[in-house]
From TrEMBL:
One of its GO terms (molecular function) is DNA binding. This is LysR family transcriptional regulator. GO terms for cellular component: protein-DNA complex. It holds the Pfam family HTH_1. Keywords: Activator, DNA-binding, Transcription, Transcription regulation. Residues 1-58 form the HTH lysR-type domain. Belongs to the LysR transcriptional regulatory family. It comes from Gordonia asplenii. It comes from the Bacteria. PANTHER family: LYSR SUBSTRATE-BINDING, TRANSCRIPTIONAL DUAL REGULATOR HCAR-RELATED. The keyword Transcription applies. InterPro entries: ArsR-like_HTH, LysR_HTH_N, LysR_subst-bd, WH-like_DNA-bd_sf, WH_DNA-bd_sf.
Length: 294
């Protein structure tokens, strides 16, 4: 089996269409289709089957993708090792949700550089179950989930827990709540809330507040940027839930939320058996997370 054809097969598994594979690999769709037909002949069984006007992996194709992951990982290990002999830096592509990137990357980038690894970072703000798709373009994806949500189970994804970050209630320093260091969920039933979009860990905690109080939280604003949320809370526009390590605005006070299990879990996603360079960056991410937690 040709390694290039196995890479094309894996790209199809990651991206889901011939056209997407062609665009990602700078090939024509007909060239992609032809290479996958040749691969089917090499293995003696069809790896794709028609579904309407499209195609999908057969059971044999799905099984071969798992083997392709193993073979490609072995080649990547060898390439990594030979690069170390030649000298120079090894690139590792990493995508992270924005607040995680701000917390971890300032330490991870120089630590990795000292190991001869150049981290090429980007931001990715998607729900937890959508995060593995980004492994099509990245070696590492840093994502987050609510502490009560199950970690993902996927034979093509290795999950490394990096940290567990408490989620606090933030209130204006001028609020009556600011006289305390903690607050019961029931005491917040009549508050105006500023939250993030649905599907992210902070909003999942807000749903738990609703379950505890029996009252649907009155969300007046939904925003993506925690700095903006803090600014509105400081101005007295409402209260919010925020991850503890990203709270910075002196105009707000964080309160421990009593009665609700409130935290988010940071995870690093990679392919199984990642290269030495990728593994080193994951270890640096864990170390940076421990540093942030104090």
């Amino acid at each position: 089996m040709d390694i290039k054809r196995l890479r094309i097969l894996r790209e199809f598994a990651d991206r889901g269409s011939i056209g997407a594979v062609a665009a990602a690999m700078h090939l024509t769709p007909s060239a992609v289709s032809q290479q996958l037909k040749v691969l089917s002949k090499e293995v003696g069984v069809e790896v794709l089957e028609p579904i309407g006007r499209n195609v999908r992996l057969t059971d044999a194709g799905q099984a071969l993708v798992l083997r392709a992951d193993t073979i490609i990982a072995a080649v990547d290990h060898a390439t990594d090792e030979m690069r170390a002999y030649r000298g120079g830096s090894t690139p590792v592509r990493l995508a992270s949700f924005p607040s995680g990137a701000a917390l971890l990357l300032p330490r991870v980038l120089p630590w990795a550089r000292a190991d001869g690894v150049t981290v090429l970072a980007s931001e990715l703000d998607v729900g937890y179950l959508e995060a593995p798709k980004a492994l099509a373009d990245n070696h590492i994806v840093v994502t987050h989930r609510d502490v009560r949500a199950a970690t993902m189970s996927d034979a093509r994804v290795a999950v490394t827990e990096l940290a567990r970050e408490p989620i606090d209630v933030v209130v204006s320093r001028n609020s009556a709540f600011a006289q305390h260091d903690s607050v019961d969920a029931g005491d917040l039933a009549d508050s105006d809330w500023i939250s993030v979009e649905g599907g992210f860990p902070v909003d999942d905690v807000l749903l738990s507040v609703a379950a505890v109080t029996g009252v649907q939280p009155r969300v007046t604003q939904r925003l993506l940027n925690f700095d903006t949320i803090e600014a509105l809370v400081a101005a007295g526009e409402g209260i919010a839930l925020m991850p503890r390590y990203v709270i910075r605005n002196p105009g707000v006070k964080p309160l421990v939320l009593n009665g609700v299990r409130a935290a988010r879990v940071y995870e690093a996603l990679t392919r199984p058996d990642p290269s030495a360079s990728v593994s080193r960056v994951v270890e640096h991410l864990r170390a940076a997370a421990r540093f942030a937690a104090g």
